[in-house]
């Protein structure tokens, strides 16, 4: 079930991505520097925000504990499996002006929307007429009205954006590991927990900046991975294949099984593993994600000599 909460967004800092102080202080800076309404009492804001953050962190920990199930897959062989997945990345933490919003930040205030718990793919029209497709299980924070200097949103998960061109106001997408700055273009951003993040450019041009302030310019049909170590190498790809998830179709072109299962787990909010002997097996084809995770695993099983079963509540293929 999707939730909408509200936060303030004000004037942003000049840096696209600036490593910050500790986690809690950064969250407080988010509310104080970016979200405070005029003439609010500083002591009350800081105290109330710290309490809200602690409460939200406890709620998030409990929710994630309930949702995570361990799945083990063994013996998944063969390039004939019709599977297509992308995504990977990071959670928000250590936010300061111009950085990624922490995922455990407290309840939102007015003038911004916290979108999380999305069921299926959600299309959102932003205040500047940009269109944003939010993938299932993702979390996005965006303003009801953008600031005058910059248009900024915060992503944990995956979004596809068609950005309305505005040369006077760059559009910036923040994640924990990197930020993407554009004027007007179409691109896919993925930033899931415990896996590399990536940007795939469909059209236009974007600049990607990592936490070390190293940056690179991307051209259409390029994919760039980013992790905590920084920016990786660019790869030439068919960008259209990476945005088919908007229509619940994922395309895989030789991705190792280990990454396929990791991406599938991120999409459905579960943990999936496999034997080391098959972790590097390349997979090709398409996977249609209209069903639940068990239906998807059953489709994979049809290409294998194994079967889907349960063990203490865990789903596995043996």
TrEMBL record:
Keywords: Membrane, Transmembrane, Transmembrane helix
Keyword Zinc included in the entry's annotation: no
Polar residues compositional bias, start-end: 7-17
A GO molecular-function annotation: sigma factor antagonist activity
Domain Protein FecR C-terminal: 251-315
Region spans: Disordered: 1-20
Record Pfam families: FecR, FecR_C
Source organism superkingdom: Bacteria
Residues covered by the FecR protein domain: 119-207
Annotated TM spans: 71-92
Entry keyword annotation includes Membrane: yes
Protein name as annotated: FecR domain-containing protein
